[in-house]
Amino acid sequence: MYTHDTTTSILNQNYRIDLWLSLYSLIMFAIDDMPKCLMFRLTLTHPENIPYALDNMRITRFMDSFKHSMGRYKLKLLYFWAKEFSKLSYVGNFHYHVWVVLNGQDVRNPFTLRHRVQHLWGLSLGDCTKAYGHIDAMNVPGSYTRHGIMVRKSSHDFNYLMWHVWDQAQYLAKKESKIHYPFKGDAYGGSQVPQRSKAEALLKLFEIMPGR
């Protein structure tokens, strides 16, 4: 099992534990379930001239469309999304981040999906001309693509790549911008993972808590 020390990130109180547990269990399930994982992050912005949705209807619509699009090619997809509201954000007051995991044996470069992401997010908002959805650049040293991280459990650089995976993924779990947004519904959601993976995430959290 991946043993990267997450103590600093989870105990510095800058991250929400519920989001951290959901992300950790999703990523570790993906690592065990797929021989090779391609992981990347989306940012989906909400144009200010389109009224904010008070629920999660639009991100649900986008993820349903994205899953259907991947399913047409028999691509396995796991995901986790987080809703954010911040007047200081360069991507706009209201936006989503999505952590995506695909089978790396089927897709090698997430950048090839950029037009599909943009189009489906536009359809979800009801206006393709004003929507902006993009695949974030990660720029991991040694990675052959700057927009994602390919991880294989048997690889000699597994721990190195997983350090970068968590460094990028835990951004979705930060407390900042998730506390005072004026919207209904959950602040996050994602793929269902087995109870075993959730239990392993809880054990990991228990290991790093103070007083052990």
Give structural notes.
- By secondary structure, the protein is of the alpha+beta class.
- The protein is 36% helix and 19% strand.
- Strands 1, 2, 3, 4, 5 and 6 form a six-stranded antiparallel sheet that branches.
- The radius of gyration is 17 Å and the shape is globular.
- The chain starts with 6 loop residues before the first helix and ends with a helix.
- The relative contact order is 0.25.
Defining key terms:
six-stranded antiparallel beta sheet, 6 helices, disordered C terminus
Summarize the structure.
This is Replication-associated protein ORF2/G2P domain-containing protein. With 212 residues, the chain is of the alpha+beta class. The chain is 36% helix and 19% strand.
Would you spell out the secondary-structure blueprint of this structure?
Elements: H1 7-11, H2 17-33, E1 36-45, H3 57-72, E2 77-85, E3 94-103, H4 114-125, E4 132-135, E5 149-152, H5 158-169, E6 188-190, H6 195-208
Helix pairs in contact: 2-6, 3-4
Pfam family, one: REP_ORF2-G2P
Protein name: Replication-associated protein ORF2/G2P domain-containing protein
InterPro entries: ORF2/G2P_dom (IPR056906)
